[in-house]
Amino acid sequence: MSDICYRPPGTQLNILNGVNFSLREKSFGLIFGKSGSGKTTLLQLLAGLNKPTSGSICIQRYGDDGQPKTDPELLPTEKVGIVFQFPERFFVADNVLDEITFGWPRQKGSLQLKEHLTSNLQRAFNWVGLDSIPLDKDPQLLSGGYKRRLALAIQLVQTPDLLILDEPLAGLDWKARADVAKLLKHLKKELTLLVVSHDLRELASLVDQSWRMETGGILIAERPPV
Ligand SMILES: Nc1ncnc2c1ncn2[C@@H]1O[C@H](COP(=O)(O)OP(=O)(O)OP(=O)(O)O)[C@@H](O)[C@H]1O
């Protein structure tokens, strides 16, 4: 991400002012900082939900020898998943299967895509440890930790290269927080994670790279203060 500036349409002030950072593949990146400093705004740009006013967000692939394989390309937003704060508030279905397959192709012609998604579904459930949950269970009846697992599975089924999480532990009890942190440690082996969080205690041991965001949208590389 280089020299990203963002000013919401119709406003005069930049929320982000020249943000620069790069996150390595299959690592765990943490962004922390004061409320209102622009963390969520940054995540929304990475997920393609808003466009930067200037600057670019690119992906650079490296070979096993550590040398760049290709020129940097613009980050394909279909390879980015995002789990917002309190994702369970946005659940719409009355059973786990419908929740996870919401928006999937329903027509006969899309059978191949359906099969592809179904095998991804098995894998995603396996990764997040949802295998033991009946698919007809009402998502609202799951425990707090299992609701977060479901929210993760909904994104993982789309096989993102980058998974962004906004405050993944917020509102959970200590046991669920520890469970979700353990799960993120496991997921880090499979894909790149970028997390915004104030919960530095549980997550600090997972962090490979971290940045503090200052008001005015400047990122400074810094270890989490725990
Ligand atoms: N569309 C918008 N128009 C005007 N101001 C906005 C808009 N979106 C966000 N802001 C402002 O930009 C600043 C950064 O907001 P943002 O939500 O990104 O901060 P944050 O660091 O994620 O905060 P928190 O930790 O409380 O979630 C805030 O002052 C917010 O009020």
Automatic annotation (TrEMBL):
Keywords in alphabetical order: ATP-binding, Nucleotide-binding, Transport
The keyword ATP-binding belongs to this UniProt entry's keyword annotation: yes
Domain ABC transporter residues, every copy: 1-226
Name assigned to this protein: ABC transporter domain-containing protein
InterPro entries reported in the protein's UniProt record: AAA+_ATPase, ABC_transporter-like_ATP-bd, ABC_transpr_CbiO/EcfA_su, ECF_ABC_transporter_ATP-bd, P-loop_NTPase
Organism expressing this protein natively: Thlaspi arvense
Source superkingdom: Eukaryota
GO CC field: chloroplast envelope; membrane
MF-aspect GO terms: ATP binding; ATP hydrolysis activity; ATPase-coupled transmembrane transporter activity
